[in-house]
Amino acid sequence: MSRVRSYLLRNGLAGLSLRPLAQELGTSDRMLLYYFGTKERMVAEALSMDDRRPLLRIRGVRDSADAPEDAAGLRRLLEELWAESHSPDRRALMPLQFELMTASVLHPDRYGPLMRDLITEWTDVFAPFFVRLGMSDERARNEATLVFDAIVGLLYGSLADGDWDRAAVAFDTLLDRLESGWTPDGA
Fold it and tell me: Which domain of life is it from (predicted)?
């Protein structure tokens, strides 16, 4: 699977054909389909094999005794996530991740489910932090969506223009504006 992942990182999704990949792996395209079922499933599995994914770390924090109990703690966790998400070693993955995002818009029948699952997974990880702050489930999901979508947008913009410093300032500004509103419902 690591060789599939390496191939995808080098070549991307655009025009991904199983024959050249299979040839590089020393197998056949039919064996790849037998093993994975679909090309899209293969892509999903290759992306999910990263055991250093920030999502896994955040999920671990959420389920631990160290989970933030207040807005300041949640902000610190999001700042750590931001630093981790745009670190140089994570940047190598971003073009493929954004290509997958674009493919999910252009080919919703093929890649849409993968992107929807990813977005749902992140929202499901973040929402309990907001519930812990006293928000209703609906508001917590909205806050989680806002934070996730903002991070994705800032990462995408930074990848496109290379201005990581400006994005970091924008992220801090976003947290400044949001943190004061992370109060229990009705407060």
Answer: Bacteria
| CA 11 – CA 70 distance, rounded (Å) | 43
What is the H or E stretch that residue 140 is in? helix 137-161
User: How many CA atoms are closer than 13 Å to the CA of 94, on its beta-carbon side?
Assistant: 20
Determine whether domain 51-187 maps to CATH 1.20.58. Answer: no
CA distance 116 to 101: 10
Q: What is the pTM of this model?
A: 0.82
pLDDT tens column, 77-103: 999 999 888 888 788 888 888 888 888
CA dist 128 and 69 (Å) reads 11
Q: Spell out the domain ranges in the chain.
A: 1-49, 51-187
By CB atoms closer than 10 A (0-12, 13-18, 19+), residue 146 is: middle
Of 186, 4, 154, the residue nearest 79 (C-alpha): 154
- CA atoms of 65 and 167, how far apart (whole Å): 31
**Number of continuous H segments (helices) and E segments (strands) in the chain:** 11, 0
CATH second-level architecture of 1-49? Orthogonal Bundle (1.10)
Return all residues near 22 (Cβ < 8 A) that are at least 6 apart: 28, 29, 31, 32
The span from the CA of 19 to the CA of 161, in Å, is 34
- Encode pLDDT of 103-130 as tens digits: 889 989 988 888 888 899 899 999 999 9
